[in-house]
Design brief:
By secondary structure, this protein is mostly beta strands. It is built from four helices and 18 strands. Strands 1-10-9-13-7-16 form a six-stranded mixed β-sheet, with no helix packed on it. Strands 2, 3, 8, 11, 12 and 18 form a six-stranded antiparallel β-sheet that branches. A two-stranded antiparallel ribbon has the order 4-14.
Amino acid sequence: MGLEPLLLRLFILAILLLESGVTASEELRAPRPPQREPLITSRSQSWLAAFSNEPAPRSENVPTVSGLVVESLGPHYSPDPRRIVIQQSRSDAGGSTSIRHIDAAHLDWKVQGYFQRNRDLGQVFTAPSNFTLDAVVIRTGPSDAAVGAGTPGARVLVEFFEVLGDPILDDNGTPPGSDATHGFSKNHRCDDFIRGVEYRPLLVALGGVFPDLPPTRTVTNEPTGDSAGKRIFLRWRFSGSARLQLEAGKRYAMLFGFEKPGEARTFTLANANAAGINAPPQLGDRHDAYPEGWAIRREADGTRPPIMIPGPQPPEDPASLRQLLQQSVFPEGPARFLVPPETDGYPDVDTYRDLEFYLETAIP
């Protein structure tokens, strides 16, 4: 680890200690209460509680159930026509869109003025018939960011929603011929977002463990040179109360993520993204890989737009640093599951993106 990242993490730790009224020497001497994790190794939830001026929102009892098992299918997958209900098999040959749950001490600072935010990623879909969801198959992405060093063996989850309302495409005030306000390019579609829908939580399925895939990035975010974790199909299978009964014609959504934060805990998802195409703002056009839905994300505490303070290092002002950190991590505990997903994101949006995904039902 270089000197500057180490000093940054020590500075962040000092901010936490000042917030709690404890000096650094007292922190080193005094035993911590048994229910409290060491600050430097705690996950982002406890950092959010320390940096927020208000208590974290209370959960409204989104059901959490066990019954999730995740398995690697390797680089090849042939959908069984007896089981497959929905398949979206298109994905781009490059690019990355990452699920992340990094502890606050290891958040990556971007010179554009923000910490790289933690996020869950997922997909909206429309049930073509009544069926029981037995499994979802998704795929890791094609880039060197496919599997972080802290990902294999980490516990993962899926949250499901019913999607209510009708999607309305908002061009964010950047019609054709103008530049997007944010996104991976200046193309006018790169900041469009969807409004008019409500994501009503159904349940959170827990218990899955990310398979033992070879990491493609080290803990310092350098490529490992091992490509065996790229473009690997992962089956997320459900049992017991985690198996949902879905109704024909209804829209649903699923979000994938990690249960808890950790260093280098990230992986990418294969997807098809048409945001960079110079076409009129429109859902379901010929560029849309899956017109019956769209990709979604939950970014940190849900603040949109988040603050940005450009610079080579985070600001030294404690209040600004607290705000930046708060907007980069998930709310503490189950309150995370009440932060609604969106298509809008910073820097990128999911409006014209669809994951590569396959929904399977059980064979009678």
